[in-house]
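Retro notes - structure team

What went well: the batch runner handled both jobs without manual restarts.
What didn't: labels got mixed up in the shared folder, which is why I'm recording both outputs here explicitly, each with its sequence directly above its tokens.

Job 1
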Amino acid sequence: MTVAETERAEAPVVGVTMRSREQAPPREAGPPLISTRRLNAWFGQSRVIRNVTVDFADRAVTAVIGPSGCGKSTLLRCLNRMHETVPGAIVEGDILLGNENIYKSGLNAIAVRRHIGMVFQRPTPFPTMSIRDNVAAGLRIEIGRGPSRQKTDEIVHAALERAGLWGEVKDRLNESALGLSGGQQQRLCIARALATSPRIILLDEPTASLDPLSTQTIEELVYELRQTIAVVIVTHNMQQAARVSDRTAFMLNGELLEVAPTTTLFTAPRDSRTEAYVTGRFG
């Protein structure tokens, strides 16, 4: 699929409210930052991703929608080489970060994950670490030691600022991360991912377990992050996809059926199955 589609329709499908143009002016899709080519993935004998070819643009938010079990989360896990950590899991095809295949022989998976961060559905702070050490954890995981303490503190500060959390925790950095609220913990996990200066961040239903106010805060953060990095967000919430994303991809039974500018996909989808899903007739 191309990342240069710019066609826009005027009205959303029933039940989905698009962002206002004042809040989110139209923007051209940038060049692809990460791409899949005929990607397939298995859990044992079960194929859960089927010949997916798609480009994810730099400095843009791409939402991935579809019913439960359609392969959305597996796609994300393939993108940062976490799928292969499951016993019996297999990946075939190519995933290109820029011009480099992240599955090429000899390329360290941990090194890949420093460039392709991931945040999961439920907040996953490290329970035995302080807030500061949670954010800094990824800085030393690859080489066994991190930067100097002063440099680490600067990185932690910057990551917490980008995650919109610094003002809330600056006086609590040495306290346990478990003392934070659920929404704060999720932003802490985003800060941890941002600390390694990734080129892309993957969010797997990051607000599914959060209250509406925390959800709004995360959505605003996601929309800000697109100014500097690529974001791919899996969501079951089509209203959320409409609010935060520049492009939306629809998956069904492991296949990528359609990817288009978000307004186009929700107002004038090409595939009848996409239309049935976004209008609530199944899923």
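Job 2
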Amino acid sequence: MTWKRVVTAVVLIPLVVSLVLAGSTGLVAVAVAVVILLAIFEYFSLGEAIGHRAYRLWTAFCAMMLVYVQYLAALDAQHSLNDGAMVHRVFGTFEIPTPSAADVLFIFLIGLTIRILTTRRPLVEALPAAGISSSALLLVALPLTYALRLHGVSLVGKYLLLFSLVITWIGDSAAYFVGRTFGKHPFAPHLSPKKTWEGAVASFLGSILIAIALAASNLVNIVAIHLIGMAAAGNIAGQIGDLLESAYKRSAGVKDSGTLLPGHGGVLDRIDALILAIPVVWYYWSWIYSPRA
């Protein structure tokens, strides 16, 4: 299992790094859309394992709409003039507004309502179907779209997104190997029996050390204390996201969300930490640290 895990990482990591550093935000949006689709369909399968069928196509469509509006928001940030009008949305005397994630969630609500009221499924399925569909959109799709907001930040966006990925990868690897070798004290036995406090601490320290190394190298033009703060917040969020996905799997009675990635399980297994780490880094950047400050 370990060699499969390593081989899969060796193949995927260079591809992801190349995409983030060399690809446009539009290309990253396409990749994020594919990952989200794979992840939410694995999530739907978890629901079906306990008899809860989602409204798959409508939820997937709205997930792609979220990707699109987050891409537009990233585009707005890249093309704004001193926080003024978005130059690519001004036509003569008119400025076309950018739809938001809240708009998509409202559209999802309307469509979900129509779907529930017109379905031929047994009424007993209405509540579970609404729950699985809504949670797939809110707990998987929406958080991952913040990868586009990060990538769209002027000048440093691609480095911020790569930073989010790297602190998660390093944290996961440190937790896995330290936990297997030295782990003795269970971290959350009711959710994930194999996770230990030793692994959790190693994960946190690994992310902090990466932030310190990047700050010392001056590869990213961000104040060191904030780089460390983002690493700390992102790592804690990532570990919570990992536990959250473990709760989903235990609820469904399965070990992995899928089998697509050898040694890692499914796509949802591989990105569970990123689901919370990426938006937390984004909000740290936009709320706590700002290059305008």
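One thing worth noting from job 2: Confidence is low (pLDDT under 50) at residues 81-85.
We'll revisit the folder naming next retro.
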